[in-house]
């Protein structure tokens, strides 16, 4: 029996309305996320990964705006909710962890004060209970001597410790959905591995749905169950993580995988995708990857829809020359 759906995103379009024109950051983005599922969202910088997370969490700042589409949490529409209503959801039902924990942590407030503020934003609890829950949360994310850490300022902790505190704050209210935006990029490999093991354990035990936003395919390969590949604000491929990484269907996905340095032989030049992503204000007609693609033909100038891959349940590709056969 399938786990219940936590998040449904349908035809999401997000733009930045600038004096010079409309920047279409997301175009018709659609996906679902089930309870306990870990979804990897990958792509180059500027592909729309972080904007997807900010759009879901209602954290877009002007001139950014969700122009159309639907975001449903447990079947309830949250697109366009008033600010006060979204604040009641944010932290309690949806949480977000950013790449730099200093974006989350106030440098002039002690850790205990910040965790207490996060708890009291949604609960009426005593100071004693607040401290007990904060200590328990820090213990859960593997922070030693949690009582002492509550009295520390963020600058007194290492980068890995600060990120653990940010994760602990995000999980204080046991949210149904957590969005993590490249939370391990600035950490060393050992700490990165500890954070990955931690979030996998929490998702498995609590049934939390997780969106992990990253450009690092090696990280997402060992963490996620499903992957969405984004390019120029659109999903170009989705499917089970092993299927997509072992047999990529979109030339862009294949290019990303080939660009991983570990795949290069000693003495060989590192592979790379030629060119760069087009400006979102000047996208080519049809497939946005067309100017960089070695398989491009005139047919690629036509609009491309996500198509199901034959014989591979749940996989889709937005390409008229996929590397895997698509049923007619």
From TrEMBL:
<dbReference type="InterPro" id="IPR027417">
    <property type="entry name" value="P-loop_NTPase"/>
</dbReference>
<dbReference type="InterPro" id="IPR017871">
    <property type="entry name" value="ABC_transporter-like_CS"/>
</dbReference>
<comment type="similarity">
    <text>Belongs to the ABC transporter superfamily.</text>
</comment>
<keyword id="KW-0472">Membrane</keyword>
<dbReference type="InterPro" id="IPR003593">
    <property type="entry name" value="AAA+_ATPase"/>
</dbReference>
<dbReference type="InterPro" id="IPR050388">
    <property type="entry name" value="ABC_Ni/Peptide_Import"/>
</dbReference>
<dbReference type="InterPro" id="IPR003439">
    <property type="entry name" value="ABC_transporter-like_ATP-bd"/>
</dbReference>
<dbReference type="GO" id="GO:0005524">
    <property type="term" value="F:ATP binding"/>
</dbReference>
<dbReference type="GO" id="GO:0055085">
    <property type="term" value="P:transmembrane transport"/>
</dbReference>
<keyword id="KW-0547">Nucleotide-binding</keyword>
<dbReference type="GO" id="GO:0005886">
    <property type="term" value="C:plasma membrane"/>
</dbReference>
<protein>
    <submittedName>
        <fullName>Peptide/nickel transport system ATP-binding protein</fullName>
    </submittedName>
</protein>
<dbReference type="GO" id="GO:0015833">
    <property type="term" value="P:peptide transport"/>
</dbReference>
<keyword id="KW-0813">Transport</keyword>
<keyword id="KW-1003">Cell membrane</keyword>
<dbReference type="Pfam" id="PF00005">
    <property type="entry name" value="ABC_tran"/>
</dbReference>
<dbReference type="GO" id="GO:0016887">
    <property type="term" value="F:ATP hydrolysis activity"/>
</dbReference>
<dbReference type="InterPro" id="IPR013563">
    <property type="entry name" value="Oligopep_ABC_C"/>
</dbReference>
<dbReference type="Pfam" id="PF08352">
    <property type="entry name" value="oligo_HPY"/>
</dbReference>
<keyword id="KW-0067">ATP-binding</keyword>
<feature type="domain" description="ABC transporter">
    <location>
        <begin position="7"/>
        <end position="257"/>
    </location>
</feature>
């Amino acid at each position: 029996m399938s786990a219940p759906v936590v998040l449904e995103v349908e035809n999401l379009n997000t733009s930045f309305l600038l004096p010079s024109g409309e920047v279409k950051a997301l175009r018709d983005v659609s996906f679902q996320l089930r309870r306990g599922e870990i979804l990897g969202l990958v792509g180059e910088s500027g592909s729309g990964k972080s904007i997807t997370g900010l759009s879901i969490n209602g954290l877009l700042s002007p001139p950014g705006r969700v122009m159309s589409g639907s975001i449903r949490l447990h079947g309830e529409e949250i697109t366009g909710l008033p600010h006060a209503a979204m604040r009641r959801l944010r932290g309690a039902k949806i949480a977000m962890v950013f790449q730099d924990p200093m974006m989350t942590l106030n440098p002039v407030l002690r850790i205990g004060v910040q965790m207490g503020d996060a708890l009291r934003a949604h609960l009426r609890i005593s100071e004693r209970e607040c401290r007990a829950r904060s200590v328990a949360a820090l213990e859960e994310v593997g922070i030693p001597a949690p009582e002492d850490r509550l009295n520390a300022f963020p600058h007194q902790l290492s980068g890995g410790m600060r990120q653990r505190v940010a994760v602990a704050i995000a999980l204080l209210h046991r949210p149904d959905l957590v969005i993590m935006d490249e939370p391990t990029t600035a950490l060393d490999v050992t700490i990165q591995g500890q954070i990955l093991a931690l979030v996998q354990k929490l998702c498995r035990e609590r049934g939390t749905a997780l969106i992990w936003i990253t450009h690092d395919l090696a990280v997402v390969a060992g963490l996620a169950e499903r992957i969405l590949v984004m390019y120029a604000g659109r999903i170009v491929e989705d499917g089970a993580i092993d299927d997509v990484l072992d047999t990529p269907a979109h030339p862009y996905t294949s290019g990303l995988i080939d660009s991983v340095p570990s795949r290069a032989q000693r003495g060989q030049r590192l592979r790379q995708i030629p060119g760069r992503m087009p400006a979102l204000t000047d996208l080519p007609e049809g497939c946005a990857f067309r100017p960089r693609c070695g398989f491009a033909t005139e047919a690629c100038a036509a609009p491309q829809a996500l198509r199901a891959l034959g014989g591979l349940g749940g996989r889709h590709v937005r390409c008229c020359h996929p590397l895997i056969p698509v049923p007619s």
